[in-house]
## 1
Amino acid sequence: MVIFDVRREIERECKGVNIIMPNILITQYCVRSCPYCFAKKHMSESSPTDMLSWEDLIYLADFLWASGERKFRILGGEPTLHPEFNNMVLYLLERGFDITVFTSGIMADSKLLEAEFLFRDLPPERLNFMCNTNDPQRTHTPLAEQESIKRFFRAFGNKVSLGLNVYKLDFSMDFLVQYINEFGLQRHIRVGIAHPIPGKKNLFLPLDAIDRVIERLFSYAPLLDRFRVKTTLDCGFPLCRISNDQLGWIQRVTGGQTRFGCNPVIDIGPDMSVWPCFPLSDFHKKSIYDFNSMREVIDFYQKYHDVVRIEAGGIFGACDECTFREEHICSGGCIAHCVSRFQNEAPIRMKDVYL
């Protein structure tokens, strides 16, 4: 009965959610080449000099503010490579935005020193960094990069939370807990799964590996509890593969904030193009100038999400008759798997589901 109530709470929150928060790419260039990278295809087709201009940054700030958005999520590539990164962050803070920067933590020493001086007194609520971190024992990471990341952690401490993108079954979380304890980082880890890029080749986890990923993830629950580290699941985890005990634990440590949806995230590139998420960066791409508000952008891409879900309820055959999906508790896994499957079939479906 307790677990049933937890599922009802998830349903209530999912139906009431109205999250906009687009990701703004200020540069397409990155300092790393992660084998699972969702954005690799997108960045490979862009010039390293393709960076957001001040004029377009101001336009986007006005656009989001008029849409009622008070948070600004900065991405890349590696956003700190933008020559105006520090000044742009200062401008957005002055405008009243709370800022999250998604970064590798690899910054030039001079820019890091300047950023530390400018932002050290800000509370994490105004400026925080989501650092996607690779396990140096499992993903090749040069020593110079490892040292650069540690300098970043020392500089920003409790403004930093960690992210882990799982693309191997033997992933570890020990190194993340060590970083948190050593550098005083936020006691939070975001865990995501590497998804396919429809029509392209990238390293991702096949559907038959999801059960083993979930089992290994929850094997770290005692360690995370011991050091009071909360864990949230990124989109793409299907609810049906998570046991009642596992669900109870994840809802407890997140305060009931974990949802099992797959909705348009919305990425906006330096050229002001917009798409629903990185794995679907070629899926009905538009210009932000085609819209009058973020609500219009969300509604536009939600329409296409809904069409795909009509053609394929979810990533598993059982999703078609799943009560979790019917009751909007779970969306049925990552939509990129469905779109990828369509590309390899005869074109017999509604044209809107194809790239």
## 2
Amino acid sequence: MKRLLGTLGLVAVAVVLGSLFIQSDHYLFLPDKARPVDGLVTIPGEKGTDRNQNGAGIYMVDVLIAKASLAERVFPEIRDGSTLVPADAVNPTGVSQRQLNQQGLNQMSQSQEAAVTVALRHLGYRAKVQRDGAEIIHVDPKYPADGKLEIGDVIVEARGLEVKSPDDLQRAMAPVKPGEEVDLVVERKGKRVPVTVGTKKSPSSKTANKAVFGIVVEQAANFTFPIDIKFDSGSIGGPSAGLAFALDIVDELGEEVDHGRRIAVTGEIGLDGKVGAIGGVKQKTFGARQADATIFVVPDANADEARKYAGDMKIIPVTTFDEALAKLGAT
């Protein structure tokens, strides 16, 4: 009997250990330690202080995504600061990994352009923004656009009408009935490409008679800056580092922002300086704490969630870039 119990015990241990390594069908969102923005931004003639001293400066935060093991599927709290999510939250049906990666990189590039625009205008420089189309940031695999249009395409013409903005595209599409095809011209990899795309009825009950391609677009623009600011964000994607980049640029060009403090920052920034909500707040708050940040600047819409995990770290909620500067100056 003792031998049998011992064998059963070893089997149970083996099952438990095995569950730590066998992957489940779910994913974990995990904290990623906040990193200094200074090393990711290069500005000619920057005047900011040496951020390596005492680790002071502006820090950005990100979220790591990992396949959950069977054990983590049942007990996600095994990993500190984690959140368990289903597979379709990470890999939507019909959307390839290449598309997801490209979408994230496009969002990062757009956040950098917005950050430079907002920061330079704050400092009195002229940053020129010329609207030049409607850029596709998502293609729904269940709609006619799938296989015809790509993430990163910029629609510059629809039904023979010039498209300078998403509003222009909406006006051009107004007479189109669901099921009709539409002739477009898109800019793709530096070339103008004619594309004919079908339409379907809008899924929204409020716009049931509206013809849609199954895409999400945002303003495409051409930027002209008086200073050649370069970024080295590697494979990091998404829009949530925009506010951190803008604050760091101002700091590096001579208007002190960190005042010797280690400040973590997250938030999407628009060309008008407004700060938008972001995802992964729990993980980003843990990541800020892991970097020993004393302050975490977050969009106002995310502040309540951030406070749940902040510990002694001060949470500063903001709705605009100017508000972030003012609060950091007064804190």
## 3
Amino acid sequence: MQRNGIPFARGATGVNGPQFVVSRVRITMDTALIGEGLRIARLSLWRKLRGWKRYPGDIPQICDGILNDCWNGRYYQASAGHFCQFYTRDFGIASPFLEKEKSVATLRYALERFSKRGRVTTSITPSGRCFDFPVFAPDSLAFLFRALSVAKDKQLLNEYRGFLQEQIDKWCRIVLDDDGFVRRNIHFSSMRDHSIRSSSCYDNSMALLLKEAARSCGFRTGITLTASKFIKEFWADDHFKDERDTDTSLSGDANVVPFWLGIIDNKKMARLALHCLDDAGMTLPVPLAYSPSKAASPKMIKAEMLVPNWEGDTRWMQLGLMYAAVAKKNDKQLFEKAKQAITNNIRKNQNILEVFTKEGKPYTSLFYHADEGMLWGAALSKSLF
């Protein structure tokens, strides 16, 4: 069906909650978010009062402890803290570095629930309810297929082949414009899930990821975007711009994720982008910030009021570890600098925390405290250090 001339699929955005309008598309806020928000706020308050768990040992031992705590017997949680949900994005990021048997079990858990719900979502609550935060995210299906391509479990792929192909076809109708790029002026969720961006570099990189990961699993996509078209549209002399219709906007995810995923494999471009981030002051005291300053951030959803500047010039360990991985491959000097900052941070906290202020302190607001024991942190750290 169409609304305002734009393809809209009820199953892709949810219909079980109060509605609000973002841009030209009507999106729904899932009522599951209310319960999850209250639970996270309660656990954040506990962390404020009592602090976070401190794992004994060196960094590999800390990582092992976190990965053990993130496995709950059914699936890999996004964290050993308050994000005890299944997060499709977080699992997809960590998947190449996790135990295969547990990864396959996690994928089976997720696919059982997604197929019953009729769509792939960003998250599944601890009670098994599928929901999107804050709205439909193109990277959910892309990272799910990344995990499936890593697991290479033919039985699982064959069992859910019909559902997965249906999700790819629906994804293309919702996400892509006639020119093969992600639609403009539609709010999609993403790694930077509080931001409201128009055909972002990150979302377009997810089209390339889905195209490759689905193909490797034996699926067709119809995605026509190529790496060369992507570069032509987003490369701005020494970095990838954040959105299609902006000239020089700089963001951490745009200049790390395409190289980290291997979507763009160009050493010269990678070095230029890494140095651009470093020169902008986004890599210290720990990498990496989404924006060089709070003022340079894009428009954010209203929930940002509860966590001011949560995805502005704060430092995210998730991005920082990706940045370090790209630097390790392309610029040894920047890698050593990033490695030192990250290892010092992990040793100081004896844990892998989620997000920090630009001064390097664990992020906190009235209703929130940075999460602990991050699945992606432990997985990426094991691969790097």
